[in-house]
Amino acid sequence: MRVAQDSAPPAPSAAPGAAARTLLPTLVPALLVGVVTSLVLLAVGTAAEELQDVLWETVPDALGVGRYSVLWMFVMLVATGVAVGLVVWKAPGHAGPDPATTGLDAPVLPLTVLPGLLLATAFVLAGGPSLGPENPIIAVNVSLAVRVGLRAFPRTRQSGWVALAEAGTIGALFGTPVAAALVISEALAGQRIKGQLWDSLFAPLAAAGAGALTTALVSEPSFDLRLPPFGRPGWGDLLASLVVAPVGAALGMCAVYAFPHVHRAFARLRHPMLMLPVGGAVLGALAALGGHLTLFKGLDEVAELARDPDGWTAGEFATMTVVKLAALLVAASCGFRGGRIFPSVFVGTALGLGAHALVPGVQPAVGVAAAVLGVLLAVTRQGWVSLFVAAVLVSSPSVIALLCIASLPAWLLVTGRPHMQLREDGTAVR
């Protein structure tokens, strides 16, 4: 994620600590950007949910076909591939760059590209491919903030508007500005900062807070899975977290290493009207193997798993883990527009609950938090986001110490290795 020192619209003061009169004018633009980023996210999410209800409930009920029958899952995923393929083929700008080459660090796109990107994203969220909204929504919000912000304030810098839009969107996605603050702090770690850290965080944190609050007021998001209570950690919990987190990281790295090869295989088809429908067909076959819980971005499905941690066998959890990871890999490789964080949360949750089913001594909260941490470290390479998401899923302060320790061996497995993101020439980013 790009966060420059001039993360607020007006140019920063050269003084070691930015004066209040320098920071204060950034507040209103930051709050406006945060509110708008949240509204864009909510609008796309609401539209996708309405379309999902039609595609997966109204239409199959009218046809007398099972909502999640193998036939209907296959038909819907292929149809989603056709719909997205048409958008990528015909829409101005082809719905943005190849999603395999993008991450949370969003490019600034021409405004003519944004309608196609939003339409493709809504189709993906509604149709069932295993991708979340984060990457394309960040790209849309960044592009809007830069174009409108620079027109309204011509003397400001583009990087400031980029930082505000990214922070606001991350705050809206997770329903709290803490995630955005952690990501920004991580991005600033490699830069020479003028003045105090909170001077650089001031405007982005305001945008993140406005985005998070807008989302909370409108939709009341919650990442707490309400797993069985986790009390004081013991030695067994420490051992479990030290084993499960590296296993999750190793599993995630399998997808990372396969990513360039799978992407290259789909690229040989050359045309989006071949790549995306074929990708949809592969996803349909995977859904037939893993069941309907392995569809979509995964948050609602994660909540369903967590409602009954003992409702599936270790083998069933293992199947869902592998199938979801493969579905994420295929969807991200063949051209579907979307992000990888939320499907990775499902992969980690299924893995953690599978560890509990295999070894009952592994508490569900510990297994889930550690596994999600490991998978996210491999897929995103965002340490703070991985820790944050893993911790909020179980909503237990005592698990944070375990996660900090468990992150060490998991990080040793992923650091210095390829990322799940490609350069323009198809090679992996490192």
Description:
It is a multi-pass membrane protein. Keywords: Membrane, Transmembrane, Transmembrane helix. It is found in: Membrane. There is one protein chain. With 430 residues, the protein is an all-alpha fold. It has two domains: 20-219, Clc chloride channel; 235-414, Orthogonal Bundle (Clc chloride channel). Helices cover 68% and strands 0% of the residues. The chain contains 16 helices and no strands. The chain has helices at 20-23, 27-63, 70-90, 114-127, 134-152, 158-174, 177-188, 197-219, 235-267, 272-290, 299-307, 314-334, 341-358, 364-380, 383-394, 399-414. Helix 2 (27-63) packs parallel to helix 8 and helix 7 (177-188) runs antiparallel to helix 15 (383-394). The longest helix is centred in the N-terminal third of the chain and has 37 residues, at 27-63. The radius of gyration is 21 Å and the shape is globular. The model is unreliable at 4-8 and 10-18 (pLDDT under 50).
Record keyword descriptors for this entry.
430 residues; mainly alpha; Clc chloride channel; 2 domains; 16 helices; globular; transmembrane
What is this structure's SSE topology?
Layout: H1 20-23, H2 27-63, H3 70-90, H4 114-127, H5 134-152, H6 158-174, H7 177-188, H8 197-219, H9 235-267, H10 272-290, H11 299-307, H12 314-334, H13 341-358, H14 364-380, H15 383-394, H16 399-414
Helix pairs in contact: 2-4, 2-5, 2-6, 2-8, 3-4, 3-10, 4-5, 5-6, 6-7, 6-8, 7-8, 7-15, 9-12, 9-14, 9-16, 10-12, 11-13, 12-13, 13-14, 14-15, 14-16, 15-16
